[in-house]
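New to this. Please check this fold:
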Amino acid sequence: MRRFIAFLSVPFVALSVTGLQASPDDGLFHRMKPGDIFVVSNEENLSTGYSWGVDTRASTGLDRVAISDGGHTQPGESLPGAPGAHSWTIRALEPGRATIQFVYQRPWEPAPVRTRRVIVKISP
């Protein structure tokens, strides 16, 4: 999996999470305790047909976390075609490890154009 970082490029796709660090297996790593909460936010532009989602088939340990979809929001005024962000709230439920695979794709296309993996280590 390749990492993607862009500054002032089109399309701009980024993952924004506080407290994450790079992991040895090419994902973003976050340590939590049961009950802890953090928010993952991916920039997206729905006018292109692309949107972020969770790939449950490529994710593991989802029974150890609760994921609430915060949906798409646009900062400031609503302008047609303006980019926004899609966010999810992740809550740790029980000790263990969870891998959450986010995909950026059009619903009618077979493969995503971007993926982001967040690895969550939950310890008491």
Notes: The first strand starts at residue 15 and ends at 16. The beta strands are 15-16, 21-22, 28-32, 37-44, 51-54, 65-73, 84-92, 96-105, 114-122.
